[in-house]
Design goal:
4-stranded antiparallel sheet; 307 residues; elongated; alpha+beta; 9 strands; 4 helices; 3-stranded antiparallel sheet; Translation Initiation Factor IF3; Alpha-Beta Plaits
Amino acid sequence: MEFDENLNPVTPPTRPTPWDQPLPYTAPTPPPVMPKPVIPPVTPPPASIFNLPAAAPQPVPLLPLIPPKPVHPFPIAIFAMMFVITLVSIVLALAGNWFGLGQPRSITVSGTGTAYSVPDVAKIDFGVRSTARNLATSQKMNADAIAKIKNDLAPFEINAEDIQTINYNINPDYIYSPSQKPTLSGYSTYHFLRLTMRKLDMVDPILQTLGNSGATDISQIQFTIEDPADVKNEAREKAIAAAKDMAIQLVTLNNTKLGRVISIQEDTSADSNNPRLMDGMGGGGGPGVEQGSLSVTSTVTISYSLR
């Protein structure tokens, strides 16, 4: 190595090498253009209770304005008016009691009247029971027995409308055994009629004829009045007279007088004389039924005003 006069190392020139030459300028290559990504359209989610459209705002109802209660400037005047009205009502009520201006005075009495009458109609219920192995035979036997009874009653000249069927039924008959099932033994036919008699002197002969003609049941005999209007009027007149007599006696004892009739009510009851006969009454002597008499009772309640 060589040095110069100042003792600095002198570096020998070197030859240029290919690597020491500057590289020729080359323009930079632009980056490749990437295609834009295709974004698929956004599909709205299905409607549900969480994404319903917002409800339109509702108008808020306005509360009605309540006018303030008026303040009475003079409450003492109102109290005074109420006191005066109450006082006047009390005075009028007392005056009505003092001078008889309130409820009208009245008296209520009751009277009873009874009227008697001889019955003019008799009614008898009778029937026939027929039993046979089969139903048809039972019915035929019963019909024949009823026809015989009607034929025997023909001499008494009983009207057709005075013989009325009141019950007709058919029952099967069974034989019951403790160790066996019930066994059908036949049928029983029942036919009951009501006979109205308007000639009371024929009651005994008719009852005897029914027993001799095959009637198996004679349930009762009843004596009545065909038209009870007259006997009811008589009982009513007696009841009204009894009630008025009682009212006059009461007001006389109390130094007052009867006024007009305010109300009147009546309760009427009839007492029927009903001899009853035993079932299966047969022939022999006459039954000797007594018709007796009938009573009708009327109870009248009358209210009178007092003067």
